[in-house]
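Deviation from plan, reported transparently: zinc ion complex.
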Amino acid sequence: MRALRLQEWKSEPELVELPDPVPGPGQVVVRIGGAGACHSDLHLMHDFGAGAVPWGPPFTLGHENAGWVHAVGDGVTSVAVGQPVAVYGAWGCGACPRCRLGMETYCGNPAAAPVPAGGGGLGLDGGMADYQLVPDARLVVPLPDGLDPVRAAPLTDAGLTPYHAIRRSWSKLTPESTAVVIGAGGLGHVAIQILKATTAARIVTVDTDPAALTLAEACGSDTMVRAGDSAAGEIRAATGGRGAEVVLDFVGADATLALGVATVRTLGDLTIVGIAGGTVPVSFFSVPYEVSIQTTYWGSLPELAEVLDLGARGLVEPRVVTFGLDDAVSAYRQLREAKVHGRAVIVP
Ligand SMILES: [Zn+2]
Ligand SMILES: [Zn+2]
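Because the crystal trials were delayed, the predicted structure below was used instead.
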């Protein structure tokens, strides 16, 4: 089969031929229908080096995958050959208390996981290939009726990650509240739809790119703000001067975090989802009272089922741009040059 491999750190991936995977006991092989190209893969290719994470190349990229069950190993009864499924991408030990809650992102026993603190496309082979080996049947989630793999694939990360971030702030997203979305890219434009589908908050979206703000408006954002010196004032004005109950930063740079602190309201949440690695000073005087600042990472297995339900009902539909596997390297180049509006999905 064909597979897009990251062969070494600080390099572009290569399309190579590999043997078709064969499932062992309890395992599933998925014929890939869609594999999302994530901005974090660019960090894997260009920024990471030895020691940054407890795993390394070579491995097949793609941690945002859906397809059809192609083959199952001995003992697998939860899915059948031909069934459409999404792949939950964070692979924990499956047995610790957190994994039993489906929160394998924060597995308590990573040494017992297939790879510590990784998954398919993150240390082990991912879905930018004709087939993907999934090490345990619990990690594939059947697609609800009405959802095909190309539309489901981005929901497993570009959908699941903002869903998890928004869900933990649900109690603050009351009808008179405001949510600010910073960055309307692959995750941010889906975040707007999730806010719209699951809360009654007013939505303000900030981006540097006018095309991203046009997409934000199409996704249901109430107010669009161009990033820049006047952005904080415009956001505060949109909240009647009070500030926003929840700020979701899908960039995570110094400037966007400063904007978050300047616009979040007392008792609010400032949630850092983007991995640009910026910092923000926190002191008694620098942040409004009782603001919680947190990072989030991906989401849980039960949350994936919830996001797929939103997708099947048409309430959340990532904007998808498809590329063939032969064009995957080009897709990542376009992503790096900020030429992709919505989510690039590789369709082998
Ligand atoms: Zn990702
Ligand atoms: Zn675990």
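The chain has a mean pLDDT of 97. We consider this an acceptable substitute for the interim report.
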